[in-house]
Write a structure and sequence with these properties.
two-stranded antiparallel sheet; 6 helices; 2 strands; mainly alpha; elongated
Amino acid sequence: MEWYLMVWRKYAEFDGRSRRSEYWMFVLFNLLVTLGLCVLAGIGFAFLREDGAVVAVSFIPLALYVLAAIIPSVSVAVRRFHDIGKSGWMLLLLIVLGAIPLLGLVASIVQLVFLCTDSDPGINQYGPNPKFPELAGMPVGYAGFPPTGNFAPPPQPPFMGGTSVRFCTRCGASMSGASTVCGGCGASI
């Protein structure tokens, strides 16, 4: 349930990365809510009046939910594509190709494969790997492998050119001077 609510909190956030579990749990709960609203609409259909007013009113919650869920569904799918190193424009291309009869089947299969693919290890152009956030501050050559034993960040040189340089443990951005707040993600170090 937490994954589902996380996507709603990131309603229209198209940047960053999302794990497979975040995407697929959102899809699962979204499907369950939609099925529940369909059952309510079916109950309203069972009490059909001659003028059809009850039927129209019973489908309003379903229509409102589907309209409200479009943006978070697309945004979590874009973040999922970012997690495997693909652009969100690739998702748009696959959706458009999905409208073409036979090509749509191939595009849907490719999209499903991309959505099921494991995360890119380490930091990619869209941010740090959400599966291993503790590795965000490590150099790129080390990222992508879970830490063995007790994790210790790589040693930082005390001074470079008169200022100390550190890395944010959350997003991996470099921090210079005596700053205790990351300029990239706002985390307090």
